[in-house]
Amino acid sequence: MYSHAEHGNESKNIAQKPEIGVDWRLPNQKELRTIAARNCYNPSINVNVFPNTPDDWFWSSSPVAGDVSSAWAFSSGFDNYYGRDNNYRVRLVRSLGQ
Q1: Residue 88: CB atoms within 10 Å
Q2: Contact yes or no for 53/40 (Cβ under 8 A)
Q3: Domain containing residue 77
Q4: Which terminus in the chain has less CB density within 10 A, N or C?
Q5: In-domain check, residue 60
Q6: Pairing label, strands 67-75, 78-83
Q7: Is position 74 within any domain?
Q8: pLDDT digits 0-9 by tens, 9-65
Q9: Is the dihedral of CA 45, 94, 32, 15 positive or negative?
Q10: Which residues does 17 contact at the CB level (< 8 Å), separation at least 6?
Q11: Closest CA to 11 of 1, 21, 26
């Protein structure tokens, strides 16, 4: 788990491994919503597609308008904003065609 500031450094470390690729990034708030499975709960995600996903908060790359000390996070089909010093999980994504 990472604070919002720490996720950037760790994401870069992971994404720079040649065997993983360099095009991974932190998804925005809208992208995190698209992987939620409305028929699933705790976690609200298809565990066959995303195995071992904990029921926890995940950071998005979306900032909070007017509050530079906060960012949006997503969990169990809901999103909310929290202080960037909170420790939440990160899920890296790739754009289509990568």
Answers
A1: 20
A2: no
A3: 4-83
A4: C
A5: yes
A6: antiparallel
A7: yes
A8: 565 565 566 566 667 888 999 988 888 887 887 888 888 888 888 889 999 999 999
A9: positive
A10: none
A11: 26
